[in-house]
Every structure is written in C-alpha cells, then in structure tokens.
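Consider this today:
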Amino acid sequence: GELFPGENIACSEIHPSSFSLQPCFPNPFNASTVVRYQIPDARNVSLRVYDTAGRLVATLVNEMREVGTHEVTFEGSKLASGIYLAKLQAGEFTAVQKLVLLK
C-alpha cells in the first residue's frame, strides 16, 4: 500500500526474524519523534498513539506492510505536553511503548 504521511521504509538486506517495536528517538521529544518497528512477514499492521485516558490521538499505520524494518514520524506539535502510548499490533503480536512529549 501507499505510505502514510511521515512514514519511511528502511530497506535492509537482512529480514527481521521477529516482531519488535523499537525505542522511539528522541524520547522525550518536542514536536516529533520517530517510531520504528520490525515485522518478519507481510501482514496487516496497526500503529496507533493514545493518550493516558485511552483516547486515540493518531493513527500512524493501518494497512498491509511488507517484511522488514519500517519507521514513521509521530508529529505531536498540536498536542499537549504529557505521556502518550504507541501501540503496535501485527496479527497476534502487540507491543506498547511510552512516549513523553515535552514542550
């Protein structure tokens, strides 16, 4: 599928052997941070950001992705300072990571 705004595919000769949601960089962040994840096979991927009350604040990815390492930029300039949660779902794999927005 097409890339979401701010999403890049980091091409690599080596295919990942497992799922992972890697640490965001920078974190804490001001304005934007890069969320990177790996999937070992092509599948539907959902990457969403929630506030601490459980409200969805951004959908970064929500479609089929190829095997490999992917990265997407989360733009938080219009959000309040605070803690946010990035949740990656790919098949039965789920991972959550804390993001800290400081302005």
Residues 31 and 78 are 8 Å apart (CA to CA). The two ends are 34 Å apart (CA to CA). The chain has no helices and eight strands.
